[in-house]
Amino acid sequence: MTPNSAEFTAMVTGQGLNGSYLHRFKIIPNSTCPCGLKQEQKINHIILNSTILENERRVLRNPIVRTGETWPLTFEQLTRKHVKTFRNFARSIDFSALFIRRGIKQIVIIIGAYQFCQPLTKFYPTSCSQG
Ligand SMILES: [Zn+2]
Questions:
Q1: pLDDT at position 12, please?
Q2: Long-range Cβ contacts of 45-48 (<8 Å, 24+ apart)
Q3: pTM for the complete prediction?
């Protein structure tokens, strides 16, 4: 079994790498995505709408449409039926591009590392930072 990346975990759980979540914990001042659509930056917005990720979305959409599926798919279909493609999509995203404020990139990396560790050591998340 392939271990899930921090990005993949964040996308599936909706925790960490989106404006909605970071705003709830007062890490960023508002939850609107900087892409210009003036939508709240929830996971669904990142996957389906954000114009910042138009190129990355092709990594997700094209292989799925080629299998005969109708786009857009539900979150369940993406994370269950097309999990491999969804994982590639999550990996292709530069999450720092989704946040405009300086300093956010570092926070994103910290949260990402924390979430990557969580499934490995539930109670001591910082102890798995090596390797
Ligand atoms: Zn957006």
A1: 75
A2: 45/18, 46/11, 46/18, 46/93, 46/98, 47/11, 47/75, 47/78, 47/89, 48/72
A3: 0.70
